[in-house]
Specification:
globular; 9 strands; Beta-Lactamase; Arc Repressor Mutant, subunit A
Length: 254
């Protein structure tokens, strides 16, 4: 469970991070008691820490005594190299794909056993999209997630395959089926989903490579269905991913 990183005698910084870590994609807004439980901290300690974090802008307090992550934390997060480097270098290529398709485009990286969305250009409002910049979603039921999982270390793959969660009736929850899809993603160079994260949305994604071999991110697109346009979309994503990889290599060589 998110946030359960506290131990008796932990430092103030450790306890503060336990409070911040209590938030995740499924828990964007929490009460004080929920924060206390998820951070594994006494209620009085949580109350004191939350008051300080609100004063510093790290948390925001809303009506009915609920708290959310504050803008200051988000602003600091944008300074992380994975954001400022990869996101900025990839931005022109995402805009190229968006201009050609008018569909939602994603840039994402793996964060443990989840996919972290670094950037998103919003497309057709008729296609249901649950991702937002800075959010995390399961690896096994998103196009970008499957690509990243296909190239993840074996222990990460084993952990994900051992705890598959159904999100929609079409989510792949068979370890054997998903393992076969990951093999195919490695072989074909792309991964797809169909109604697995949200009904009415299909996706296709390709890896972004650094130095030609190291998978550092995934580039994906979400549409209503892939039957007619899969080949065209994969081709466009590959060109863009190759461009991102090229500028990453150039930036590293400077």
């Amino acid at each position: 469970m998110a946030g359960r990183v506290s131990t008796p005698g932990a430092s103030v910084v450790g306890r503060a991070f336990a409070v911040l870590g209590a938030f995740d994609e499924q828990h964007r807004s929490l009460t004080l008691s929920e924060l206390s439980r998820r951070a594994a901290l006494p209620l009085a300690t949580t109350h004191r820490l939350v008051a300080e974090l609100v004063g510093l802008g790290a948390l925001d307090r809303h009506g009915a005594g609920r708290y959310t992550i504050g803008r200051r934390v988000w602003g600091i997060g944008l300074l992380a190299p994975v954001q400022t480097g990869l996101r900025e270098l990839a931005s022109p290529f995402l805009h190229d794909i968006f201009a050609a398709t008018r569909a939602t485009v994603h840039l994402a990286v793996r964060d443990g056993t989840e996919v972290l969305y670094l950037d998103r250009l919003s497309g057709s409002a008729s296609v249901p999209i649950v991702s937002r910049v800075g959010t995390r979603l399961p690896l096994h039921c998103t196009g970008v997630g499957k690509v990243l999982l296909a190239h993840a270390p074996r222990d990460v793959v084993a952990e994900v395959l051992g705890s598959l969660r159904r999100v929609t009736p079409y989510t792949i929850v068979s370890a054997d089926v998903l393992a076969a899809q990951l093999d195919r993603a490695r072989r074909d160079g792309y991964a797809t989903t169909a109604d697995e994260m949200s009904i009415g949305a299909s996706s296709v994604a390709v890896p972004v490579l650094r130095h030609g071999t190291e998978v550092v991110a995934a580039l994906g697109i979400v549409v209503a269905q892939l039957r007619r346009d899969r080949r065209r979309l994969v081709a466009g994503l590959r060109v863009a991913a190759q461009g991102i990889g090229r500028v990453l290599d150039q930036a590293a060589a400077r």
